[in-house]
């Protein structure tokens, strides 16, 4: 058993059931989707979900970015309930399925349950080695800050030492994010945030900017880094330079900010304070790649599984890459039954 106390890491995000299938480029064009993107759906996509479940062979896979990461972290930690998850679902079959899959993985799920809105879904449309995500948040979008005020959740928040929130959650409940981030800063804990998708920097930059001063660890991939740079008015697309600038943004506590940017098979860029390190990635042979869906989430899960044990950045990145590769070798963000990581 891991000596790590229970409820060390709290994750907060949208719990979504992924509806995954393979589509042609023409299908993406028809619904106005890009090959490699993550967006929120609007009313014009309702018929797309109908078409998908009617005409395609779809797989239902537990998803939602932070929940994926926590499932992966639990898989590596191999001791239940070291991580807790907050997010909102409906009172329905999909919500029950998400809860059972998360619990099975060892995540201590504390959903806010909305009796009148359906559990959120995410179309994960695979096209070759690309994937296009179109999230229908539904119940996930109804999360309210009072869920955090519940006595049982207050206790968990006091116990926790690390927090992981996705940029995706900025579209849902910024006050809840600020509450956890402020608590973290006040008690000298560690608050981590993922940029999640370019649209967050493009369309929710004001809210994102309010949270950044409280962020101790910032995750993202190269596209998200570029969108963040653009929103900040930085005229560079160099991932290292963006990471340095992000690390140097104003910060509430004196702890130096850590920035971790992944770039697929290219090296992981890490900035600690003003020091840049590149961690090379062992490229997977093409025949071993099933789909990269969830690679970024798995990387974060692996990274955090070590980081919350007080292991250093190098050990955390190594485990992040290991976890990402295991997920790339399988459909969706799913892990093999046994974890061989030591
Ligand atoms: P998705 O965005 O697919 O997952 P991801 O984990 O972010 O995967 P990406 O493929 O985007 O990876 P990345 O670009 O972040 O990482 P990178 O390629 O740099 O999201 C999946 C989930 O998002 C779904 O479950 C869905 O439910 C959820 N979601 C969507 N919208 C949402 C919303 N609004 N709210 C909540 N959830 C939402 O790779 C990372 C690492 O992988 C690399 O550093 C490396 O170590 C490794 N790696 C990558 N490629 C290779 C390679 N070729 N060989 C070896 N290692 C590799
Ligand atoms: Na991503």
TrEMBL record:
<feature type="active site" description="Proton acceptor">
    <location>
        <position position="297"/>
    </location>
</feature>
<comment type="function">
    <text>ATP dependent phosphorylation of adenosine and other related nucleoside analogs to monophosphate derivatives.</text>
</comment>
<keyword id="KW-0460">Magnesium</keyword>
<keyword id="KW-0539">Nucleus</keyword>
<dbReference type="InterPro" id="IPR011611">
    <property type="entry name" value="PfkB_dom"/>
</dbReference>
<dbReference type="GO" id="GO:0005524">
    <property type="term" value="F:ATP binding"/>
</dbReference>
<feature type="domain" description="Carbohydrate kinase PfkB">
    <location>
        <begin position="27"/>
        <end position="336"/>
    </location>
</feature>
<dbReference type="GO" id="GO:0005634">
    <property type="term" value="C:nucleus"/>
</dbReference>
<dbReference type="GO" id="GO:0044209">
    <property type="term" value="P:AMP salvage"/>
</dbReference>
<keyword id="KW-0067">ATP-binding</keyword>
<dbReference type="InterPro" id="IPR002173">
    <property type="entry name" value="Carboh/pur_kinase_PfkB_CS"/>
</dbReference>
<comment type="subunit">
    <text>Monomer.</text>
</comment>
<dbReference type="InterPro" id="IPR029056">
    <property type="entry name" value="Ribokinase-like"/>
</dbReference>
<keyword id="KW-0418">Kinase</keyword>
<comment type="pathway">
    <text>Purine metabolism; AMP biosynthesis via salvage pathway; AMP from adenosine: step 1/1.</text>
</comment>
<protein>
    <recommendedName>
        <fullName>Adenosine kinase</fullName>
        <ecNumber>2.7.1.20</ecNumber>
    </recommendedName>
</protein>
<dbReference type="GO" id="GO:0005829">
    <property type="term" value="C:cytosol"/>
</dbReference>
<keyword id="KW-0808">Transferase</keyword>
<dbReference type="GO" id="GO:0006144">
    <property type="term" value="P:purine nucleobase metabolic process"/>
</dbReference>
<dbReference type="Pfam" id="PF00294">
    <property type="entry name" value="PfkB"/>
</dbReference>
<dbReference type="InterPro" id="IPR001805">
    <property type="entry name" value="Adenokinase"/>
</dbReference>
<comment type="similarity">
    <text>Belongs to the carbohydrate kinase PfkB family.</text>
</comment>
<keyword id="KW-0660">Purine salvage</keyword>
<dbReference type="GO" id="GO:0006169">
    <property type="term" value="P:adenosine salvage"/>
</dbReference>
<dbReference type="GO" id="GO:0004001">
    <property type="term" value="F:adenosine kinase activity"/>
</dbReference>
<keyword id="KW-0547">Nucleotide-binding</keyword>
């Amino acid at each position: 058993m891991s000596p790590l106390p229970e409820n060390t890491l709290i994750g907060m995000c949208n719990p979504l059931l992924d509806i995954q299938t393979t589509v042609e480029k023409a299908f993406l064009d028809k619904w106005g989707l890009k090959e490699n993107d993550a967006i929120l759906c609007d009313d014009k996509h309702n018929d797309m979900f109908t078409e998908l479940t009617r005409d395609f062979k779809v797989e239902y896979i537990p998803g939602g970015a932070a929940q994926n990461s926590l499932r992966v972290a639990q898989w590596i930690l191999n001791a239940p309930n070291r991580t807790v998850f907050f997010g909102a679902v409906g009172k329905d079959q999909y919500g029950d399925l998400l809860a059972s899959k998360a619990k099975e993985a060892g995540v201590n799920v504390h959903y806010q349950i909305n009796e009148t809105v359906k559990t959120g879904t995410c179309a994960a449309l695979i096209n070759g080695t690309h994937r296009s995500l179109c999230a229908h948040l539904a119940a996930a979008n109804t999360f309210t800050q009072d869920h955090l005020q519940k006595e049982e959740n207050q206790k968990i928040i006091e116990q926790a030492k690390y927090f992981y929130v996705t940029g995706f959650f900025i579209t849902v409940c910024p006050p809840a994010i600020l509450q956890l981030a402020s608590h973290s800063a006040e008690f000298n804990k560690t608050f981590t945030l993922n940029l999640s998708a370019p649209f967050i920097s493009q369309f929710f930059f004001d809210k994102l900017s309010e949270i950044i001063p409280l962020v101790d660890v910032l995750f993202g991939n190269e596209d998200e880094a570029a969108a963040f740079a653009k929103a900040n008015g930085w005229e560079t697309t160099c991932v290292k330079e963006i990471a340095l600038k992000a690390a140097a943004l104003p910060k509430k506590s004196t702890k130096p900010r850590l920035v971790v940017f992944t770039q697929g098979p290219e090296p992981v860029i890490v900035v600690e304070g003003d020091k840049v390190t590149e961690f090379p990635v062992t490229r997977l042979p093409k025949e071993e790649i099933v789909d990269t869906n969830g690679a970024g989430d798995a990387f974060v899960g692996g990274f955090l599984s070590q980081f919350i044990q007080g292991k250093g950045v190098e050990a955390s990145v190594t485990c992040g890459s290991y976890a990402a590769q295991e997920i790339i070798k399988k459909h969706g963000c799913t892990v093999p039954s046994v974890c061989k990581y030591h």
